[in-house]
Design goal:
352 residues; 2 domains; Spore Coat Polysaccharide Biosynthesis Protein SpsA, Chain A; alpha/beta; elongated; nine-stranded mixed sheet
């Protein structure tokens, strides 16, 4: 394996219990890859001890950098921030719950050095419940047929991107981001490798059903106009059916001296058409709402501070300027924070 300068970017939200094991496994993996590496954490407004742990990591390890959001902006915004602040020859995106295994990174690097600009994980043998697995499979099936871009089924955010793909994704101005779609849209040579997806190391998933639905909607509305075209198709079908019925009613009246009856059928037809109109009004509203959010040009995220060994003090955003417990951690790493990092650095925590 040739030398490579790699950034591993990890968004975290209330992952205090997972950070020591994640850090230990990342350091073990990166120590076997030649080159200079950085681990970049993005704290998405955590309310537990995640921020203090990250600040302590920066103190103990100069290769660690941590961005702290002013509040929770969401997973895709945290991934975008990681890409904005990543450097090196390539960047690896992964989640902080250890479902994305750090031990897969050398396989990504090997494929990248074979000439691929993007290497993504195709997740197999997922450990979620059958209902969630069915929902994932249905979504991937739908978007693969609706999207204008050929999106691979089962591919998540866990991936490696070269610096030139990173530059392209950074330049995309979308606010409602579906990064695995933008990654595919960028093109260049891409390949997927099958990776067995582990269960969460500790804790519970922060992705509720509502958040998953919103992510699916962002993927569909960002990469497909089929929902809008479906309105035209349904309208054409309805006009065609109404025309056939009108011809039948005219013939029945002129030649058989009777008119079609059925008050119940009429009410059902009216209710059905009203429902269809409301559904497609909602679809149009989704597209218009995304245009409205885009033209406001608000930032995708706000950084409260940056912890990095490149600065002697914690760097605060000039618009925020508020202090936190992390300053005390930087001056004196003590208590359970330092103990957790010592355990992680020594490799004494269990592997799960």
């Amino acid at each position: 394996m040739r030398s490579i300068n790699l950034t591993v970017a990890v968004p975290v939200y209330n992952e205090e219990s997972n950070l020591p094991e994640l850090y230990r496994r990342l350091k073990n993996v990166l120590s076997d890859i030649p080159g200079r590496h950085q681990v970049l954490f993005v704290n998405d407004g955590s309310t537990d001890g995640t921020a203090d742990l990250l600040s302590a990591m920066v103190l103990c390890d100069p290769s660690v950098k941590a961005l702290h959001f002013a509040r929770n902006f969401g997973h895709q915004a945290a991934l975008s921030a990681a890409l904005d602040h990543a450097g090196g020859d390539a960047v690896v995106l992964m989640d902080g719950d250890l479902q994305d295994t750090p031990e897969t990174i050398p396989r990504f690097v090997a494929e990248h050095q074979r000439g691929f600009d993007v290497v993504y994980a195709i997740r197999t043998k997922r450990k979620e419940g059958w209902l969630l697995r069915t929902a994932y499979a249905t979504f991937y099936w739908l978007i693969s047929r609706m999207s204008d871009v050929d999106l691979p089924q089962g591919a998540g955010d866990f991936s490696l991107m070269s610096s030139r793909v990173l530059k392209i994704v950074r330049s995309c101005p979308e606010r409602h981001r579906y990064l695995r779609g933008l990654r595919r849209w960028a093109g260049f040579r891409q390949t997927g490798i099958e990776v067995e997806r582990d269960a969460r190391y500790r804790g519970e998933s922060k992705y509720s059903w509502l958040k998953l639905f919103r992510l699916a909607a962002d993927g569909i509305f960002s990469f497909s106009a089929v929902p809008l075209r479906a309105a035209s198709w349904m309208g054409s079908l309805t006009v065609g059916a109404a025309t056939v019925f009108a011809v039948y009613a005219t013939i029945a009246h002129l030649f058989f001296s009777r008119s079609p009856q059925g008050f119940t059928a009429l009410i059902i037809a009216i209710t059905f058409l009203a429902g269809v109109q409301l559904i497609f009004l909602g679809v149009i509203g989704e597209y218009i709402g995304r245009i409205y959010e885009q033209v406001k040009q608000r930032p995708l995220y706000l950084v409260d501070r940056i912890d990095s060994s490149e600065h002697s003090n914690i760097q605060h955003s000039p618009t925020m300027g508020r202090h936190s417990n992390a300053e005390r951690v930087r001056t004196a790493v003590s208590g359970t924070v330092s103990a957790a990092l010592v355990v992680a650095g020594a490799g004494a925590s269990h592997s799960g």
